[in-house]
Amino acid sequence: MTRFFVSPEELKQDFLVLTGENANHAKVLRLQCGEQVILCDGSGHECLCTISDVSAGQISLVINNRTDSATEPSVQVSVYMAFSKGDKLEHVIQKATELGAYEIVAFPSARCVSRPDDKSLSKKLERWQKIAASAAEQSGRGYVPKVVVLKSFAEAISRGVQADKAILFYENERATTLKMALSEGSFKTIALMTGPEGGFEAKEVSKAADAGFSICTLGSRILRCETAPLCALSAVMYDAGEF
């Protein structure tokens, strides 16, 4: 069933009108009177609606019932990914949203080649959030993950360790696997941190460990920076019973 995201204020009304991009999307799909769609507020609440009128520039809807979204995972996973070259972060934002990530957090680390300035970051962040919203709509999410940009590795460590379980993946780690880290308990919030193309420096890994991060391996093979976070996220969702 077609899904649209609207503001929380709009979702509280008994009658709704789709305008702008939502109305254009509805017309591209050739939605007609009497068809049903789902409206979400992006925060886990949704409504089943019936189209009551289709006219130029707008689509009118009647709300049938309100429910909490049934598509959100039981665990909130924050994906922390160091800045990467090209459009790799865009790819991760899209796919992580589809896989059920709660948020995607971008940050700089010592070996980052890409270091966007404040001006370009503002434009990028707007685009990244749109990518997350589009992926959430396409994949049937009831929540739109927030894309967050941090100014330093230290800030990422400080923020990430607030999760019930914080994990940093390091290619030189051999002893602790993700399975071992997740077997230490049941967690409602998890932070997964991966590095840039060149990986993390040893001193960064030490700082993360001192702060409370579990340092884990993702196996004997070296994964690309855009592969590692999606691999880890998928494994966590499987462990949580989401697949």
Summarize the structure.
The protein has 243 residues and is an alpha/beta fold.
Question: Could you explain how this protein is built, in words?
Answer:
By secondary structure, the protein is an alpha/beta fold. It has two domains: 3-68, Hypothetical PUA domain-like, domain 1 (Ribosomal Protein L25, Chain P); 76-239, SPOUT methyltransferase, trefoil knot domain (Alpha/beta knot), CATH 3.40.1280.10. The protein has helices at residues 8-11, 20-28, 88-99, 118-139, 153-160, 178-182, 202-211, 228-239, and strands at residues 3-5, 15-18, 36-40, 45-55, 58-68, 76-82, 103-107, 146-149, 165-169, 189-194, 214-216. The strands form two sheets. Strands 8-7-6-10-9-11 form a six-stranded parallel β-sheet, with helices on both faces. The longest helix is centred in the middle third of the chain and has 22 residues, at 118-139. The chain is elongated, with a radius of gyration of 20 Å. The model has no long low-confidence stretch (mean pLDDT 92).
